[in-house]
Amino acid sequence: MFAVINRLEQLVETLGGLARGCVLVLVLLVSANVLIRYGFSVSPVALQELEWFLISPIAMLGIAYVLKHRADVRVDFIYEKFQPRTRAAVDLFSALATCLIGLFLAWVCWRYMMQSYQISEGSPDPGGLPHRYLVKAFLPLGFALFGLQGIADTLRALRGLLAPQPMPEEALP
């Protein structure tokens, strides 16, 4: 079970690193676009659209990465008062929901992306970027990664529920 969790989270970590790299490239690209626009009075459509091409992996690969690092929004003031087994049960329920939602959305988005691929969707603007399906490909990939992180969290919660619990201190002689 540990090996499966580690492999899934290693994948999330690696693709999260790709998302972080895209943030840096996006910042540099926006800066270059501003300099080109105001310095040379030129506004290349392809460079503007490339910004949107970079936002897709940042958002979609970042979802699972944020979940893995527990940087998501949680209501912890109630959760922290629960016993370890109750926490594990809550974690199991939320992980299963994450898994099901992520994998369902990946399945829905796959058809959306494939439709874009089949019609060779590109930019409607002159000078824009072709292959818009590449941007849309991050939708099923990101949601599938989110679902896989849900599987890792499910396995971790199951391990917490199935592990023998130590006796409370008040029960010891």
TrEMBL record:
Membrane topology reported for the UniProt record: Multi-pass membrane protein
Compartments, as annotated in UniProt: Cell inner membrane
Tripartite ATP-independent periplasmic transporters DctQ component domain: residues covered: 26-159
Keywords: Cell inner membrane, Cell membrane, Membrane, Transmembrane, Transmembrane helix, Transport
Transmembrane segments: 21-40, 52-67, 88-113, 133-152
UniProt xrefs under InterPro entries: DctQ, TRAP_DctQ
Primary localisation category: membrane
GO molecular function: transmembrane transporter activity
Pfam family, one: DctQ
Keyword Ligase: no
CC annotations in GO: plasma membrane
Family per similarity comment: Belongs to the TRAP transporter small permease family.
PANTHER family for the chain: 2,3-DIKETO-L-GULONATE TRAP TRANSPORTER SMALL PERMEASE PROTEIN YIAM, SLL1102 PROTEIN
Subunit structure and binding partners: The complex comprises the extracytoplasmic solute receptor protein and the two transmembrane proteins.
Function: Part of the tripartite ATP-independent periplasmic (TRAP) transport system.
Name this protein carries in UniProt: TRAP transporter small permease protein
Species the sequence originates in: Stutzerimonas stutzeri (Pseudomonas stutzeri)
